[in-house]
Amino acid sequence: MSKQTTLLNSLKAGKEYTAKQITGSFGIAHPASAIRNLREQGHCIYSNEAKLHDGTKTTKYRLGVPSKRMVRIANAVFGASIFTAQK
Q1: Position 78 confidence tier, pLDDT thresholds 50, 70, 90
Q2: Which end of the chain is more exposed for a tag (fewer CB within 10 A), N or C?
Q3: Would you call 44 helix, strand, or coil by DSSP?
Q4: Ramachandran class of 3: left when φ > 0, alpha when ψ lies in -120 to 50, beta otherwise
């Protein structure tokens, strides 16, 4: 199983990670690239601002479900064909 797949499975389990945690936990040298690749595969991964226990601001990544508003916007911009399953 690839590192990226392991990350995805962990996100599917409801966990969220900072870029530093992704590197440390999964050995992924470029977390932003891994997140981008997962998004390109169609996974809805949110980036949320968070504060660490020491007050430092960071970004945490989590898997989510797109809101109705996001689906409406995608449909308006790209048309209904964006929701057609790809083979």
Answers
A1: confident
A2: C
A3: coil
A4: alpha
Decide: residue 72, CB within 10 A, 0-12 exposed, 13-18 middle, 19+ buried.
exposed
- The confidence band for 85, taking pLDDT boundaries of 50, 70 and 90, is low
Number of Cβ atoms within 10 Å of the Cβ of 26: 18
Report long-range pairs for 47-53 (Cβ below 8 Å, ≥24 apart): 48/16, 50/18, 52/18
Q: Is 60 helix (H, G, I), strand (E, B) or coil?
A: strand
Q: Which structure tokens are listed for 40?
A: 């390109």
Tell if the pTM clears 0.85, that is, is over it: no
**Do 72 and 65 touch, CB atoms closer than 8 A?**
no
Residue with tokens 């989510």: 64
